[in-house]
Amino acid sequence: MSLLTELSVLVGSAFAAVGVDASLGSVVVSQRPDLAQFQCNGAMAGAKQLGKPPRDLADEVAKRVESDPRIRAVEVAGPGFLNIHVTDELLAQWMTSTAGDEHLGLYQSNDPMMVIVDYGGPNVAKDLHVGHLRPHVIGESLKRVYRAAGHDAKGDIHLGDFGLPMGQLIAAIAESHPDLPYFDEAATGPFPKESPVTVEDLQVLYPEASGRSKAEPEFQAKAQQATVELQAGRAGYVALWEHFRSVTLESLRAIYARLGVNFDLWLGEASTGDRLEPLVELLQERGVAVESEGAIVIHVTTDEDKKALPPLMLRNSRGGSTYATTDLATIQERVEEFHARAIVYIVDLRQSLHFEQVFRAARLGGIADDSVQLIHAGNGTVNGPDGKPFKTRDGGLPRLSGLLDETVALARTRLDENELALELPDDERDEVIRLVGMAALKYGELSNHRTTNYSFDIERFTQLQGKTGPYLQYVAVRAQSILNRAAEQGLEPGTFLPPSNDKERTLILSLLAWPEVVERTLETLSPNVIAEYTYELATAFNQFYDACHIMREADAAVQASWLGLVSVSRLVLVRALDLLTIEVPDRM
RNA sequence: GCCUUCGUAGCUCAGCUGGAUAGAGCAUCGGACUUCUAAUCCGACGGUCACAGGUUCGAAUCCUGUCGAAGGCGCCA
Fold first, then answer.
1. Measuring from the CA of residue A545 to each C1', which nucleotide is nearest?
2. pTM of the predicted model as reported, rounded to 2 decimal places
3. CATH number 3.10.129.10 is the correct assignment for the domain at A114-158+271-382
4. Fewer CB within 10 Å of terminal CB in chain A, N or C?
């Protein structure tokens, strides 16, 4: 329950009483704060149903609503807007219940779902680059939002550890180090525990091998052969592949620790290996998968399509699986083993067609029925500050780890320049700088809508003022600082009094809007809704802070109520930032 | 060629699924510190929402077309 729901119920019953649908009574935060706190636009639509002028209907509803003791005033404006003001007492009541609620008013789903959030998808042997930032941060955020709404969400890294690239690596190493035991066809193991290659080696090897594969048909054939044998379970190849996987994961874990990204499942494409054959057979039995031009495909076009979609390639003409196959098998795995009721993919929008094919195939083949939501929550691309695709001077993509270093270094420069946090011990200050850097980066990322192609401008993101991560951390820390100071004087947050000025009212209204913010984030699957909100809340708090000098307040009851406001403001802000994967230091 | 997404202030972006006078940040100009952390707050300037039609009480939002941008289009992932 939230204040908005309570009001919607009230206004809805008034609509029902005059003979139209109660759902017309949906109350939203006013778009004109100068005119009202809340508004309802239902009269315009309802008037059509009743065949009477909207203002007449609005007047009737207003009359019923304004007699309610919780309502201070209702006005009808324009074509039939209901402008609603609630009593200050109601606001105080809601602050009391919000402060006493461990979820701070957030709806907890009464039908919790198992949600698998698939984000990241880094590839074995490839370093993370700037482009990986988006899905990782958005995915981690959405996973937390699902949890905050009472769902059981798991993040799956879905490692790219399958297919031709693996064969290319094996073929390359077979050429450069033919004496290694992994290449003895008869060998069954055990093989050395130590990896023959480091992750750095792989990062050099992979682009080479991939390039050669395109240019040299002979090498390509070897790579394809190795891929097939690896998938068939040749012991030496499997052992070598496991090394690729483990050295890659080790380096990934380090960077995820810095980023604050946590996966619950460390599965990959290859973990579906045992499912591929039976899946293809099953889909053939069901008549969904058919032979075409030497391959096995699933036709996914429907009559409603303007243009035929390419069929999903289940097995290519060489007998190999594609990533469509593994993605389909992964859906099966998630449904059967994890009982997923929603699978959310945070993957580049450019893969839209692929997911459309896979989702349709999953429905057609009965892999996931309609009780399982399949969602491609695609993300846009990252551009450089010039608005063009992000590239380094040599044309490559900047490495993510380097980018993190750069960001933290810039955060340090900012703090140094402004002579901030100088009183902190060195190690604490270092940690603050790290958190400030990460906040800058993540807020810069998440304040954009998920689908936009945004300009990555670290100079702008690390600004300490304006709509940035560091600003939001600062506000939360400032709130904490007041609470600390109050506690030193033995002052505690107390009973919420009805607000006595507009800054206070605005702050309370902002705090009480939090449940709908999370709700809407879940509807749009875009964390920028929360990012936008944190800035609004922070601004409302700062205005309150500016207008109401808490420590200097003479009236002890008012002071205690204000301290309560500070406390809840800080809690909501910190919670909201946590959903954006942003951490707030104790002081800064 | 076909399909998809996008085009909002000088710059970077929001815009709560069709509502009132389209909002922020940055930049520019001006104001507020004997401070509960000024990393703040207040004000000013800045828009034919790419363009043209249409749908209706009402359109940045929905439909059609034009121009422009990015991306995708069976055996890579």
1. B36
2. 0.95
3. no
4. N
